[in-house]
Design brief:
By secondary structure, this protein is mainly alpha-helical. It has 3 domains: about 100 residues; about 50 residues; about 100 residues, no CATH class. It is about 65% helix and about 0% strand. The protein starts with a helix and ends with a helix.
């Protein structure tokens, strides 16, 4: 890459006098893509790219203030807070946005509190009304998706949870894990876990933890065993063979039994596996 290619495509021409700085300030305030939505802090950053002369920047900003072309931080915060609340946004969104625009957090929170007290603002009521008007039914949304969407609007997770619970369609709302559970193919999961050396008890516990409906899983396991798709007895033997227990020692034998039980095998399967491994050792 050549030196010319390394150069920025656009370089800001430095100001040679105060008038140039002031014209630049007015352009930012009235014509830029952030026109009418600039704080003093943001404007100062833009003018610092234009000149290193702090006095010119201060004078330009003071002159804009004299003509009410730029708002004080307090006035800017008050206007934004009012628009945000009436646009169904919460305090979190207000604080985050105004901090990014260079306002002090203490100022922001004090103006929020003052506005809420003066206008009797109830954020929970705002959020309840928003979710009730925006969603007739929740449809394909999950609880997690809704909470994420509402917290992005600046409300707390507790507020989002309360708003969702008071909605008429709440009984039909599912969580991510419930949606995934409904899509789970129990037979495929049973075969997969059985072939990985898990007994039926462990398989059932795993699926239940994922909120999968395991009604009839015993009958399914019996069917798969009958057609030789799975074999818990053989699987139990294979799992035990991979371990190095001395089955002639009572304590080691007890540990082997406990280990296989934790893997989900039943007592008959465990006794069979221990017997088979003992015969092999003999």
């Amino acid at each position: 890459m050549t030196d010319d290619q390394n150069q920025p495509k656009y370089q800001i021409r430095k100001a040679k006098n105060f008038d140039t700085v002031y014209r630049s300030a007015k352009w930012h305030v009235f014509e830029s893509n952030q026109a009418f939505f600039l704080t003093e802090a943001e404007l100062r950053i833009r003018l610092e790219r234009k000149t290193d002369v702090v006095e010119w920047i201060d004078q330009a900003i003071d002159k804009l203030k004299q003509y009410n072309y730029i708002k004080s931080d307090t006035d800017f915060a008050d206007d934004f807070i009012e628009k945000a609340y009436f646009g169904d946004y919460g305090a979190g969104y207000i604080i985050q946005t105004l901090q990014k625009k260079g306002l002090d957090r203490k100022l922001i929170t004090s103006r929020i509190n003052a506005f809420k007290a003066e206008r009797h603002i109830d954020e929970q009521e705002i959020l309840n009304n928003y979710i009730n008007s925006y969603y007739q039914i929740f449809g394909n949304n999950t609880k997690e998706k809704l909470i994420n969407r509402l917290t992005k609007r600046g409300f707390t997770q507790a507020q989002a949870d309360n708003a969702i619970k008071q909605h008429a369609d709440f009984p039909n709302l599912k969580t991510n894990i419930q949606v995934k559970a409904e899509k789970t193919d129990v037979e495929k999961e049973l075969i997969k876990m059985a072939r990985k050396g898990k007994g039926l008890k462990a398989i059932k516990a795993t699926l239940q933890a994922k909120q999968v409906d395991i009604c009839g899983i015993e009958q399914l396991a019996e069917k798969l065993t009958m057609d030789e798709t799975i074999d818990f007895y053989t699987s139990c033997v294979e799992v035990l063979n991979k371990k190095d227990y001395d089955l002639s020692d009572f304590n080691q034998r007890s540990k082997a039994y406990a280990f296989l039980a934790q893997r989900g095998f039943d007592s008959e399967q465990i006794k069979f596996a221990i017997s088979e491994c003992e015969q092999k050792d003999d």
